[in-house]
Amino acid sequence: MTKREKVLIAIMVIIVLLSGSAVAYAYRDHLPFAKKAVTTTIEVAKNSNTDDQPTDSATPITDVAGDEAQISTGSTADQVAWTPGDTTSSDIGTPATDPVTWNTPEKLTDLKLFKENLNDSYRVAQADYYKVGTPTGGGEVITIFGYGEGPGPTQFLRVRKDSNGQYYYLPRSSVLTDRDQEHLKAQFVDTVKVDDTTAYASLVIPSKITLDEKTSFSLSSSHFGSGNSYFFSDFGKEDFLKQTPVEISETKYGTLYKVAGNNAAEVLNRRILLRLSDQTLVDYTLDVPFATDDKVYSFTLNNGDRNQAKFASATYQCGSPQTSVIKNAATISDRLSKIGAAANGDSIYGFKAATDPALTELYNNYATGREGVASQNDFFVKNALIVWQDPLKDYQVFMKEDYAPLGECGKPAIYLYPTAKTSVSVKVAANITKSEPDYGSGWNVVANPSGAIELAGKGYPYLYWDGFGLGKYPLISSGSIVKRNEVEAVLKSQLAQQGLTEKESADFLEFWLPKMPNTPYVRLTWLGTKEMNQLAPLSISPKPDTLIRVFLDYQGLMEPMSLASQNLRSIPRTGFTVVEWGGLLRN
């Protein structure tokens, strides 16, 4: 222990004796174990990527934190998003003081804690219950994933059951939107009491997490997007959680991880996840120091010209934007050169060659579906792409908005099969660009048991829409690698495995088969009902008894690759059944 650390500890002891123990936590960042946490983080970051640097770099890229760097562990600057009206967690202590033993989530049967047939279009229509902890005095802490009947995010709700079996809703340990704050309490059955006092520090969701002066994370605007009704313990089990999360750092609020898709793409989507004590996952984004609200990133090229262009995500999106990182970072030093500097001094890089595999992939994304496209060499010369090595040792790629890919949710077709002729209302949580019949503010149609749909004297076999879901697109980590001449047969088989009829499958193939890449191999990955319900939730009244949603993500490959397989399955069709198929459309 250094002399400086001994002096700090002595000062802390004196302050505690004079002012009480509550002050002591403010000095935690200066203790030896705080510095050790940063050191551990740096080792993880080094092991997760290469230390090679691009050539022509003006300054060497160093570790995220130096000897004096400290983790922010609960300063009042870290705003908290979890409880209405509060901006800090200073009134609830620290995770170590929570009177709870947290355990691996255990799925419970339907506890039926929500009222049925409530006249509320945003009511919790379906809920999954998990035991996640045991309070010191006995009972259970339960995390609820609540799914609304109307479009909207998954709700993270918590209840406490005492040793006598009484349930208490815990609004201060739940994640609420402004809309839900007004009436969520009324949605619980009358036997559930409300506990406005209990708050678990282990479940705080801060709007910002700061590790050091160069590394901070902001709560994602779509942090309840696809994949978040999973637990950390589900990694390696679920189709879209086949990746191995890489630890970034321990924080006061939980452990931060990064995870990227493991498909054949040269450029991958990356997510930053905070694991809370009950193992729920919350999305964050690494703050980009030269990013601006108007998207005109603040950097200057080597020739002295200031950037005037807007930049956007470099990869296909059907939902909210995600971070794009180069996959093959091990060879990055041979592929990049410095082309400028950001306002904060960070180097901005470009690809050395117009034929770089990552540049080629992103150029093809840009060119697909466009007329009069620039040549790949012009795409290269005009710096359509810029690259930045972030504090996590990943190489992020940004693309000029004029070259941004045009991918969107393509022709999801919705079939309605009521048990009797019925008036049906259908709404989609998406920015809809095209629809048939016209979507307006939602479809209000008459549906028949045969599937025939009537609206304004016209008949339709299904409702269809194109657009962008409001949730987060899942990371691709599983699927099938298929020879091009076998794609049709495999698609037919996989559609049947997911419960589509011959007619529904034929409609799907008529639209999508001509759009399959003309490459030696094709990757086929299916999003299911769970993923689609978070990417683009449906609001259907009356509520269907059976909902089947399938969505195809695909990629052309020049050679096969190793990829975890998907567990495709179907569910029985009972009562009013709704079926939807779609895919990732390259416009």
Q: What can you see in these coordinates?
A:
The structure is a single chain. With 587 residues, this protein is α+β, with helices and mostly antiparallel strands. The protein folds into three domains: 31-79 and 211-403, no CATH class; 95-202, no CATH class; 408-585, no CATH class. It is 15% helix and 32% strand. The protein has helices at residues 3-19, 32-48, 178-183, 357-367, 376-381, 487-497, 502-512, 529-535; strands spanning 100-107, 124-135, 140-148, 155-161, 167-169, 193-194, 208-212, 215-219, 246-251, 254-260, 267-275, 281-286, 299-301, 311-313, 323-326, 336-342, 347-351, 385-389, 395-400, 408-417, 422-428, 430-436, 443-447, 453-455, 458-460, 463-469, 480-483, 521-527, 538-541, 546-557, 577-585. Strands 7, 8, 9, 10, 11, 12 and 15 form a seven-stranded antiparallel beta sheet that branches. Strands 22-26-20-31-30-28-27 form a seven-stranded mixed beta sheet. Strands 1-2-3-4-5-6 form a six-stranded mixed beta sheet, with no helix packed on it. Strand 4 and strand 5 form a beta hairpin. The radius of gyration is 26 Å and the shape is globular. The N and C termini lie far apart (62 Å).
